[in-house]
Every structure is written in structure tokens, then in C-alpha cells.
Design goal:
7-stranded mixed sheet; disordered N terminus; alpha/beta; 12 helices; TIM Barrel; 38% helix; 267 residues
């Protein structure tokens, strides 16, 4: 996370916590209980730095199911849990695995959050939502049901794995999602991820109400390009860009940003 605390001068390199994501298949296999058995989980729980994220949807699977590439042997071992299609990679050595879609109504979302609250009382509960047209209602249900944080994830309606019909006709641009959500009270945490390649997108997200932005593919590419210094350089560049853009707006702290700093067509 490139959080506001970091931009104000938080301690570089100090871990702020760990988030574990639950997908549809994880829920079917018993949820996140195995994670609590790991020795490293207890200090995080005791210090309030362990979060369980309920994945209602995301850029790669906005309620329609997600895909990933697996070795054939791995796909065969998981045949009872996942299906595969005919697409092959690397000379027929790998196949495309399709996961099951997650179907949610507002009542199901409410009950899922309460279930996680009751079963994991010491863990933070996060909810990840896709950039859909019901984003305002879904986020409100999540917060009212006790979620510690809501994440809106998706690059302008989805990611490369999302169906083209969703990208072209269903999903909303990230800025529109944030506009619909509006300014959040301080006790409601809003996180944003999706196509955070440069500082301007992060500044806009913070101005439109996000408390922090998340790095996904950009961070992986940076680490792949230079395993030692790629990610630190990326974060340093983004932080520098944020400082320049914020000062150009006549402000000198991320917390001073607001919706008036972003031009939204039609607003």
C-alpha cells in the first residue's frame, strides 16, 4: 500500500500488516481457518495487523469467474475444484484454469461479513468490490455490517482477464466509482487499486476519498525487472510524483486533497 501515513513520513521498510484474501473456492474449502494455524499469524492478530479480505469481486473476476495459467500436472490435481478450457501455453505444457464465479446479493454480503466477524473476531475484515454500478450500495452494506475497510479494485471496469463485455458495457471507470461513493467519514476506510502506474492516478484516488492506493501489476513488473531495487525505486518515484502534483495544487499533504482538486466531466 502506498498509504497516506507513508507519504507523511512513515518508517520505510516497517511492515504495517498482512492481508489474506478469501475467494469463492477458499470459502468452499473451509475459509481462512488454516491461516490462523501459522506461527506468524499470532503476533499479527495480537497487534491488530492481520486482515482477512472477502473477495466479492475484483478486476479479474467481477462476479463472473477468474482465470489463471497452470502447469498441466497442477491442473489435473485440481480438476475436481476447477475447470479448464482448451487454451494452451508454452507448447501445450500449460493450460488456462477457470474458477467458479461468486454470486452475491446484499443480504449474502451482509451475512458473509457477520460470519467473518464472528469467526475471526481479532482479525480485520476487508471487502473487495469490483467497479460495478451498485458500488455505492455495496460499500454501504459492507461498512454498515462491520467491515473495517472496502477496496474498489479494477482498471476502468476490470483487468485483462475480465470479459470484454464487462469492460465495454458493465464496469465503471474508477473515478466514477469514487464519485458515487463520495467523501467517507474518518471511521470508514476506503482503499483503491487498479492501474496505479503513475502518481497522477494515485493523487486523483486520494482526492476522491481513498485513504490509500494499492500496487498490483506495476509492483510485480518492477520486482521482476530488478528483484533487489525495482520495487523500492517504483515506490520512491510514485512518492516523488505525488509530492510534485500535490504541491502544484497548492497543497502540501495528501490529507488536504479533496474532490475540488479533480475535474470530473459532467460533475
Amino acid at each position: 500500500m502506498l498509504a497516506r501515513a507513508r507519504l507523511r513520513g512513515g518508517t520505510p521498510g516497517r511492515p504495517r500488516g498482512t492481508g489474506l484474501q478469501q475467494s469463492t473456492e477458499d470459502a468452499d474449502r473451509g475459509g481462512l481457518e488454516p491461516a490462523l494455524q501459522c506461527p506468524g499469524a499470532q503476533p499479527l492478530l495480537e497487534s491488530g495487523r492481520l486482515a482477512f479480505e472477502l473477495k466479492v469481486g475484483q478486476g479479474a473476476k467481477p462476479g463472473l469467474g477468474g482465470m489463471t495459467v497452470l502447469q498441466r500436472a497442477t491442473a489435473a490435481r485440481l480438476a475436481e475444484q476447477y475447470s479448464t478450457d482448451g487454451t494452451v501455453f508454452d507448447g501445450d505444457e500449460k493450460v488456462l484454469r477457470c474458477s467458479s464465479p461468486g454470486t452475491f446479493t446484499m443480504e449474502i454480503l451482509r451475512q458473509q461479513i457477520r460470519f467473518m466477524r464472528n469467526n475471526y473476531p481479532r482479525a480485520r475484515v476487508w471487502v473487495k468490490l469490483p467497479p460495478g454500478r451498485d458500488i455505492q450500495e455495496a460499500a454501504r452494506v459492507a461498512w454498515d455490517s462491520g467491515a473495517d475497510s472496502v477496496t474498489v479494485d479494477g482498471a476502468e471496469g476490470g483487468s485483462g482477464w475480465a470479459p470484454s463485455s464487462f469492460l465495454d458495457h458493465v464496469g465503471l471507470p474508477l473515478a466514477e466509482c469514487l464519485r458515487r461513493l463520495g467523501t467517507q467519514p474518518r471511521n470508514q476506510c476506503l482503499l483503491v487499486s487498479g492501474r496505479m502506474w503513475e502518481g497522477a492516478r494515485a493523487v486523483k484516488s486520494l482526492a476522491l476519498g481513498a485513504r490509500a492506493v494499492g500496487l498490483g501489476r506495476a509492483a510485480l513488473l518492477a520486482a521482476d525487472e530488478d528483484p533487489e531495487q525495482g520495487l523500492p525505486r517504483l515506490v520512491a518515484c510514485l512518492a516523488f510524483e505525488l509530492r510534485m502534483l500535490i504541491s502544484a495544487l497548492g497543497k502540501y499533504a495528501p490529507a488536504a486533497l479533496d474532490q475540488d482538486d479533480v475535474w470530473l466531466p459532467g460533475a
